[in-house]
UniProtKB/TrEMBL annotation:
It comes from Streptomyces parvulus. InterPro entries: AIG2-like_dom (IPR009288), GGCT-like (IPR013024), GGCT-like_sf (IPR036568). Transmembrane segments: none annotated. Residues 8-136 form the Gamma-glutamylcyclotransferase AIG2-like domain. Pfam families: GGACT. CDD domains: GGCT_like. This is Gamma-glutamylcyclotransferase family protein.
């Protein structure tokens, strides 16, 4: 699977209007479109959400396409924001390639998604309560 330069699916503080959107994405994207991640549930975290892979769930968010000249720097910055280090068992999130669906026309596309890392996902599944509509409120 080719995972070079995939767009990003954002569902929390990186969404338009979210606290991190302006800090990381404003002026660095070519497109931001409403989209759905199927096969995941959204759980609240301490000020930010976690997508946990689970059959039957849906998470609402946006698929964000970076400007080509911003892609590498943005990828590195988002990995730092999400405290993602490939293979690190202490990760809170893992960055994975998943299929998301554009709201406008139902087109599926591959995108990077930061999902809850296995230990976090297990804890949320056992003690957390999913956000009923899979839509993190932008504050």
């Amino acid at each position: 699977m080719d995972t070079t330069r995939l767009p990003f699916f954002v569902y929390g503080t990186l969404r338009p209007g979210g606290v991190n959107h302006g800090l990381f994405l404003r002026g660095r994207t070519r497109a931001e479109e409403p989209a759905l991640l199927r096969g995941a549930l959204l759980y609240p975290g301490p000020g930010y959400p976690y997508a946990v892979e689970a059959p039957g769930g849906t998470v609402r968010g946006e698929v964000v396409t970076a400007l080509p000249e911003e892609y590498e720097a943005l990828l590195a910055e988002l990995d730092r924001l999400e405290e993602y280090v490939p293979g690190d068992p202490r990760n809170l999130y893992d960055r994975v390639a998943r299929t998301v669906v554009r709201d406008a026309d139902g087109t599926p596309l591959r995108a990077w998604v930061y999902v809850a890392a296995p230990a976090v996902a297990a804890r949320l599944r056992s003690t957390g309560r999913p956000v009923a509509d899979g839509n993190w409120p932008v504050r």
